[in-house]
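hiii so um. not sure if this is the right channel but i have a protein structure encoded as C-alpha coordinates and i wanna go backwards to a sequence. like what aa goes where. can anyone help
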Protein backbone atom coordinates (compact mmCIF):
# COMPACT_ATOMS: atom_id res chain seq x y z
CA UNK A 1 0.00 0.00 0.00
CA UNK A 2 1.52 3.26 -1.14
CA UNK A 3 0.98 6.76 0.06
CA UNK A 4 -2.33 8.60 -0.36
CA UNK A 5 -0.48 11.66 -1.66
CA UNK A 6 1.22 12.49 -4.96
CA UNK A 7 4.66 14.08 -5.23
CA UNK A 8 4.32 17.17 -7.39
CA UNK A 9 7.08 18.41 -9.69
CA UNK A 10 7.26 21.01 -12.43
CA UNK A 11 6.52 18.17 -14.86
CA UNK A 12 3.17 17.07 -13.37
CA UNK A 13 2.00 20.26 -11.61
CA UNK A 14 -0.17 21.64 -14.44
CA UNK A 15 -1.74 18.24 -15.13
CA UNK A 16 -2.67 17.84 -11.44
CA UNK A 17 -4.13 21.29 -10.79
CA UNK A 18 -6.11 21.19 -14.03
CA UNK A 19 -7.92 18.00 -12.98
CA UNK A 20 -11.61 18.23 -12.28
CA UNK A 21 -12.49 18.12 -8.63
CA UNK A 22 -10.51 19.21 -5.60
CA UNK A 23 -6.71 19.32 -5.40
CA UNK A 24 -4.80 20.10 -2.20
CA UNK A 25 -1.13 21.00 -2.30
CA UNK A 26 1.19 20.85 0.69
CA UNK A 27 4.36 22.93 0.09
CA UNK A 28 7.06 21.53 2.42
CA UNK A 29 10.78 20.79 2.88
CA UNK A 30 12.61 17.93 4.61
CA UNK A 31 14.40 20.27 7.07
CA UNK A 32 11.14 21.97 8.18
CA UNK A 33 9.97 20.76 11.63
CA UNK A 34 6.35 21.95 11.28
CA UNK A 35 6.23 20.33 7.81
CA UNK A 36 7.32 16.99 9.27
CA UNK A 37 4.70 17.36 12.03
CA UNK A 38 1.96 18.19 9.49
CA UNK A 39 2.84 15.33 7.13
CA UNK A 40 1.12 12.47 9.05
CA UNK A 41 -2.02 14.63 9.49
CA UNK A 42 -2.06 15.36 5.74
CA UNK A 43 -1.55 11.65 4.94
CA UNK A 44 -4.40 10.57 7.28
CA UNK A 45 -6.83 13.11 5.81
CA UNK A 46 -5.72 12.11 2.28
CA UNK A 47 -6.42 8.45 3.05
CA UNK A 48 -9.87 9.37 4.39
CA UNK A 49 -10.73 11.42 1.26
CA UNK A 50 -9.94 9.27 -1.79
CA UNK A 51 -12.18 11.51 -3.94
CA UNK A 52 -9.75 14.43 -3.41
CA UNK A 53 -6.25 14.73 -4.92
CA UNK A 54 -3.59 15.39 -2.28
CA UNK A 55 -0.22 16.57 -3.60
CA UNK A 56 3.05 17.51 -1.96
CA UNK A 57 5.70 19.86 -3.33
CA UNK A 58 9.19 19.52 -1.86
CA UNK A 59 10.32 23.15 -2.11
CA UNK A 60 13.99 22.08 -1.93
CA UNK A 61 13.69 19.93 -5.05
CA UNK A 62 11.17 22.18 -6.81
CA UNK A 63 12.61 25.64 -6.21
CA UNK A 64 11.34 27.06 -9.53
CA UNK A 65 7.78 25.98 -8.71
CA UNK A 66 8.01 27.43 -5.20
CA UNK A 67 9.33 30.71 -6.64
CA UNK A 68 6.55 30.82 -9.25
CA UNK A 69 3.93 30.57 -6.49
CA UNK A 70 5.86 32.96 -4.22
CA UNK A 71 5.98 30.47 -1.36
CA UNK A 72 7.43 32.53 1.51
CA UNK A 73 7.00 30.13 4.42
CA UNK A 74 6.32 26.45 4.81
CA UNK A 75 4.28 24.49 5.27
CA UNK A 76 1.84 26.29 2.97
CA UNK A 77 -1.44 24.68 2.02
CA UNK A 78 -3.23 25.49 -1.25
CA UNK A 79 -6.60 24.19 -2.37
CA UNK A 80 -7.81 24.25 -5.96
CA UNK A 81 -11.26 23.19 -7.13
CA UNK A 82 -12.06 23.05 -10.84
CA UNK A 83 -8.81 24.92 -11.61
CA UNK A 84 -9.68 27.80 -9.23
CA UNK A 85 -7.33 28.58 -6.33
CA UNK A 86 -9.70 28.85 -3.36
CA UNK A 87 -7.31 28.76 -0.42
CA UNK A 88 -3.67 29.51 0.18
CA UNK A 89 -2.29 29.82 3.69
CA UNK A 90 1.04 29.19 5.38
CA UNK A 91 1.11 27.27 8.62
CA UNK A 92 0.24 23.87 9.97
CA UNK A 93 -3.42 22.91 10.42
CA UNK A 94 -4.66 20.48 13.05
CA UNK A 95 -6.50 17.49 11.58
CA UNK A 96 -10.06 18.69 12.51
CA UNK A 97 -9.39 22.08 10.86
CA UNK A 98 -8.08 20.43 7.67
CA UNK A 99 -11.09 18.08 7.56
CA UNK A 100 -13.47 21.02 8.09
CA UNK A 101 -11.75 23.02 5.35
CA UNK A 102 -12.21 20.14 2.88
CA UNK A 103 -15.92 19.90 3.83
CA UNK A 104 -16.31 23.63 3.15
CA UNK A 105 -14.58 23.37 -0.24
CA UNK A 106 -16.76 20.37 -1.19
CA UNK A 107 -19.89 22.35 -0.25
CA UNK A 108 -19.03 25.40 -2.37
CA UNK A 109 -21.19 26.28 -5.33
CA UNK A 110 -18.52 26.74 -8.00
CA UNK A 111 -20.93 28.63 -10.29
CA UNK A 112 -21.25 31.26 -7.55
CA UNK A 113 -17.47 31.29 -7.07
CA UNK A 114 -16.92 31.89 -10.81
CA UNK A 115 -19.54 34.69 -10.83
CA UNK A 116 -17.70 36.35 -7.93
CA UNK A 117 -14.35 36.03 -9.75
CA UNK A 118 -15.87 37.63 -12.89
CA UNK A 119 -17.37 40.44 -10.79
CA UNK A 120 -13.95 41.09 -9.20
CA UNK A 121 -12.27 41.15 -12.64
CA UNK A 122 -14.85 43.63 -13.98
CA UNK A 123 -14.45 45.81 -10.90
CA UNK A 124 -10.65 45.80 -11.33
CA UNK A 125 -10.97 46.57 -15.06
CA UNK A 126 -13.24 49.54 -14.22
CA UNK A 127 -10.58 51.04 -11.97
CA UNK A 128 -11.57 49.19 -8.82
CA UNK A 129 -14.42 51.56 -7.91
CA UNK A 130 -17.57 49.94 -6.50
CA UNK A 131 -20.56 50.45 -8.80
CA UNK A 132 -22.93 51.50 -6.03
CA UNK A 133 -21.14 54.65 -4.82
CA UNK A 134 -23.51 57.61 -4.53
CA UNK A 135 -22.32 61.18 -4.91
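sure thing!! here u go:
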Amino acid sequence: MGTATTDITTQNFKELVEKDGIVLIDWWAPWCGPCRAFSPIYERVAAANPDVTFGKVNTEDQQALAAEFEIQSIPTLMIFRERVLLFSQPGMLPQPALEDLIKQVKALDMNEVRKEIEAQKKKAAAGGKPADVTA
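oh and The longest strand covers residues 22-28.
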